[in-house]
Amino acid sequence: MKVAVIAVQGDVEEHVDIANKALENLGIKGKAFATIKKEEVRKADAIILPGGESTTISKLIFKENIAEEIKKSANEGKPIMGTCAGGILLAKHGDEQIAKTKTKLLGLMDIWIKRNAFGRQRESFQIKLNIKKIGEFEAVFIRAPAILKVENNVEILAKLDNYIVACQQDNLLALAFHPELTNDTRIHEYFLEM
Ligand code: GLN
Question: What is the CATH number of domain 2-193?
Answer without folding.
Answer: 3.40.50.880
